[in-house]
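for the writeup, i need someone to sanity check this before i put it in the appendix. the sequnce is what the collaborator sent (i think, or maybe the updated version? ugh). structure was predicted straight from it, no edits. if anything looks off just tell me and ill rerun, i have time this weekend
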Amino acid sequence: MLDTPAGGLYAARWRPETAKATRSPIVLLHDSLGCVALWRAFPARLAAASGREVIAYDRLGYGESAPYPGPQPASFIADEAEVFGALREHFGIERFVVLGHSVGGSMAVEIAGRHADGCEALVTVAAQAFTEPRTLAGIRGAEQAFQHPAAMARLAKYHGDKADWVLRSWVDTWHSEAFADWTLDPALQRVACPTLTIHGEHDEYGSRAQPERIASLTPGPAEPHVLADCGHVPHRECPERLIAALLPFLAGPTAT
């Protein structure tokens, strides 16, 4: 548990037996309903396959971290770059690779630009770069599903009595007037490190225009890596293929 001015942050780390001391760790950022536990076996598998330490943490208000002190602000994506500084200090992280899923991918972009002194590489998976009707419709559909008590019980399994806050923060923030014209473009233009953009062919929350925007404004392949027959959560739907897409990128300029 990391102490921060706003409350405790829960973090976990996976150290493979074959880890190479010269390789920087991979830091994972979860999605809008996620937490460390919902990465499931992916961090351990990624650590073993890449030979790198993997670190993940629950954002404030999520999982085992402290409750968020009030409503989630519209600036929450950019704000995470400041929280990340506390994580770097706690673990003594000088150089790192940052990988974010969904809104965690948007946060990873902010982190890559604002922590350019240490960010060796950026990976976005199913990330959002702007607000689009498909994203909003997907969130509304999920909101309807969470009206079923069993669905909220599953959310509470991971977030405890913070579950309602987690759901409302996701739904209400994305549908707020302040978020209507939100775009990640300024943050994307600050990214200077190699970038890999990954997207599921059947992503329910974002069209292919999302990863194409990210890829076009960051250093790296001009086209996103699209995972066939995969939706919004590749680390659960097709973890083997996701790791296979990551390994050549991680073995490139970021290997030292």
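Strands lie at 2-4, 7-9, 11-14, 26-29, 54-57, 96-101, 119-125, 195-200, 225-227. The domain at 2-255 is CATH 3.40.50.1820 (Rossmann fold).
thx in advance!!
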